[in-house]
Every structure is written in structure tokens, then in C-alpha cells.
Amino acid sequence: MINKVKSLIFFFLSPFVVKRLKSQSVFLTFDDGPHPENTQKIINILKHFNVKASFFLSGKEMDKYPHIVKELYDSGNTLCYHSYYHDHAKEKSFSSFYDELKKVSEYEKNIGVKFKKFYRPPYGELTVSTLTLLIILRWKVLLWSVDSRDSFDEENEVLQNVNSSNVSAGDILLFHDDYDKTVRLLPVLLERYHQSGISCDKL
Ligand SMILES: [Zn+2]
After folding, report:
1. pTM here?
2. How far is the CA of 124 from the centre of ligand 1 (A)?
């Protein structure tokens, strides 16, 4: 009984999200953008299929392409954070990571957008100090339940990794903005999901 209570408390208070249990949809998430060409193409494909997705943006890239961040937000997609430098957690000091997280409110003010306080650590890595700071500043650590492996696999394999039989309601799917193959396969995937009655949502 005690263990059950403990695991329930952990479940509700845990800063980690890997799957949205109450949803009937799957969640497409794109890391490492904004990318100067691909992100715009992804926005157009999502619009065409009337689908919204979530984008885990890198601060360094947002500095270069703020207009794409604005466009992502204006087209109804969810903006989330993927660090400033895309470096390893062990390279971040408590205060440098604090500065990185604080930059998000500058982006909100300067670009005129709103972020959801979902942080996806680069390489999925956290240290005691980065996790502590995320908890103090009330960020949720948003991971994924299905990796498309678009960083590693060929186009057809990626489609196979996320095909309708490999995903179920509530799954959070990991993709990246910066691979051309992801842009090419996205319409094929969305058409297949549509045919199989799988709906996609933003976080
Ligand atoms: Zn990344």
C-alpha cells in the first residue's frame, strides 16, 4: 500500500513526461530548429494536413531565425525549449543553465511568442544541478516514447519506426527539423496516419 502511494506521488510530482496518458492522439515533436529551410517546409506540410506539432527550439538557432519562431507560433504550433547551445548537461554550471532558461522570457518578449515550459535536454542528459534548477523554475522535462531515429536511419526505416502499428494513443514521437528526409517523409506519414484514423496533436 505504502509503495503504491509512493509511486502515485512520484507519478504526479515527477518532472518527467514521456507519454501523455489521457490523450487519444499521438504527439509529433521536432528538435533542434528553427532550421532556415526545413522548418518552413514542415509548417506548410502540417498546415496542409491540418495538424499541429511541438517544436523544441535551440536558443542559438532562434537568435539567427526569430522570424521562423514567430511563424511557428502564429501557425498554432507549440514552442518548447531545447537549451541554448545544444551542449552536454555536464558542461553547464548552475548559473550558466539559469541564464539559458531565463533567455526564454527574452524570446517571448522580443519575438512576441509564448513558450510552454517543457524542456527537452540535448542528448536526453540531465545532471543533479540541471534537474534541480528545472524543478525550482517549474519546467517539466519532456522526453519521448517513440524515437523515429531520423538522425540515424534511412527514410524507409524511419517510416517503419513510426508506422501505425508502432505507435499508440499518447505516444510522444521524436523527429528533427534539420534532416531533409524528415521533410520528405512527413507527408507520407501524415497521409498514412490519416488513413489509419490516428490523430496528431500538439503538447
Ligand atoms: Zn537535439
Report:
1. 0.92
2. 8
